[in-house]
Amino acid sequence: MSGTSAADPVAFRRLMGRWATGVSVVTTRDGERDFGLTVNAFLSVSIAPPTVLVSLGHEADSTAVVARSGRFAVNVLSHEQRSLSERFARTTPPETKFEGVPVHRAASGLALLDGALATFDATVTKAVDTGDHTLFVGVVDRMETGPEATPLLFVHGQYAEAAGPQLLRVLPPKA
Predict the structure, then answer these.
(1) Is 9 a domain residue?
(2) What residues contact residue 85 under an 8 Å CB cut-off, 6+ apart?
(3) Where are the beta strands (DSSP E) in the chain?
């Protein structure tokens, strides 16, 4: 092994960047206003009942809305939806994030991104504050299967896509 370091935040972030993740957009709703943000901390917790977990930063405006509403939806992005990932990663007013973005509504009223590989509409069953994030665990009420496409991935601080079952291709940064 090539060296160790104290668990400082910069080194931690750099090392976590070695963990390839999928990319998703979590949406929620407060009254008539949609909220959304890009998330790579999304995982399956249980199959019976179907349960998922998302980790949202305390500073994100969506975090307080999920806590109040008790609902969130996860939209798993394809490699063709990189621009949506970048859009929802920016800190901008919620109403501008959804301008011109094609969505349809879950039975719960939450925005689901058209073209997402999969969507999961969930009811929060538990929220755990830890560090600078809140972990929201939710039972999946409804889910949708989207188009067959290559998923959008993130590794080493860059977007990537699978170029086949045995090959991962890291994409160059956008200019």
Answers:
(1) no
(2) 23, 25, 38, 77, 152, 159
(3) 21-22, 24-30, 33-39, 42-47, 50-57, 71-76, 103-105, 111-113, 118-130, 133-145, 152-155, 158-162, 168-170
Does some domain include residue 23? Answer: yes
| C-alpha span between 61 and 35 (Å, rounded) | 8
Residue 80: what are its φ and ψ, rounded to 5°? -80, -5
**What is the three-state SS of 43-92?**
EEEEECCEEEEEEEECCCHHHHHHHHHCEEEEEECEHHHHHHHHHHHCCC
Domain membership flag for residue 167? no
The count of structural domains within the chain is 1
Q: What is the pLDDT of residues 41-85, one digit of tens each?
A: 999 999 999 999 999 999 999 999 999 999 999 999 999 999 999
Tell me: pLDDT of 129 over 90.
yes
Give the domain extent around 84.
19-157
171 in any annotated domain: no
pLDDT band at 15 (very low <50, low <70, confident <90, very high): confident
Query: Residue 149 maps to which CATH number?
Result: 2.30.110.10
Q: The whole model's pTM is what? A: 0.88
